[in-house]
Amino acid sequence: MSKITIIGSGNIGLSLAKGLVKSGQYMPTDITLTRRNIANLQEEAAFGFRVGDNNAEAVLHAEIVVLAILPQQLRNVLEEIRGTVHVSQIIVSVVSGVSCADIKQVLGLDKLVVRAMPNTAIAIGQSMTCIATDTATDGEIKEVERLFESVGAVVVIQEDLMTSATALCACGIAFFLRAIRAASQGGVEIGFHAHDALKMAVQTAKGAADLLLQTKNHPEGEIDKVTSPKGCTIAGLNEMEHNGFSSAFIKGIKLSAEKAGGLYSE
User: Could you say which of 163, 180, 204 is where a domain stops?
Assistant: First the structure.
């Protein structure tokens, strides 16, 4: 009997499935993957995952159903499965901009829905996933947390903050990548070959992030260790700030949050 069904086996769905197997929580045979064209799941089938294109059938015996589809596909999928999902299942939605209430409106108000917002680093097991719900118990939330801890870090938040989480964590991947790209371009300007400059920028960014994760220090505390009086670091930082570095970053996150809030309604 399948324990988990993932509907929509794109990048996020497949990354979650592989992460769950790698963590030892599930065997491939415990996981059913669905896709409209199952020819694209041959590799996964060979690995031992159950695959299919009938969503209604796939959810029948699952304990957890993950909806990993695009917002515009959601209504059709919910209509397909509404007759076979039941109250003992946890429905996990990773669909942007769609509330628990939106999903219950189609599946029934008695259904248990938890929202999750991972980012593309899920592909390497380094996602920052935010989780929210309206009525799930602590135990049920813990169950969903365990799923996503297999592919990165998890924070449980209020549901009204999910669009903000989309901007900071999902869109945020692109913001930090652009910052790294800019740093590498600066490196080329001061004399490094492009491939060396990129490698140096990437590792420096990774080191900065790991420094905060492992020491749990505030960024400004670590910045103070690098900035000496009349030094080159503070000169560079102040030049960036005079040109709106922090302000531009903050404004970008705010605008992304506004856009994320309208995805489903559009």
Answer: 163
The mean pLDDT of 167-191, rounded to a whole number, is: 97
CA distance 48 to 247: 49
Residues at the annotated binding site? 55, 68-71
Count of the separate structural domains present in the chain? 2
Domain limits at 249?
172-260
Is 226 inside a domain boundary?
A: yes
pLDDT band at 180 (very low <50, low <70, confident <90, very high): very high
pTM of the model: 0.88
Q: From the annotation, which residues make up the binding site for NADPH?
A: 55
Same-domain check for residues 38 and 143:
yes
Cβ burial of 12 (10 Å; 0-12, 13-18, 19+) is buried
Q: Which residues are annotated as a binding site for NADP(+)?
A: 68-71
